[in-house]
Amino acid sequence: DGTLTADGTEQTVVxxxxxxxxxxxxxxxxxxxxxxTVVKVYVKIKSDGSYIQYDSGSxxxxxxxxxxxxxxxxxxxxxxxxxxxxxxxxxxxxxxxYRRE
Length: 101
Fold this sequence. Notes:
With 101 residues, the chain is mainly beta. Helix content is 0%, strand content 63%. Strands 1-8-3-6 form a four-stranded antiparallel beta sheet, with no helix packed on it.
């Protein structure tokens, strides 16, 4: 858990690089009108492979339901969640993730 302060680049929120499951929340409460944030989930399916995109979501403006849930994903070699704030004033995003090994 922690807080990620957006800087306009794609930033890793959390990464699991061993066998297990990853699940959690990102708090989008700080978003305001004019803000756009993209959250992506990547998986690695080979030990020597690269991350490939599994899912992506784009969020704009004030969020009616700001608790973004990232569903449980199994990982053998890696899973990571990234956040990019591409518009607006850079905000802080609290997060809480659970790793089950």
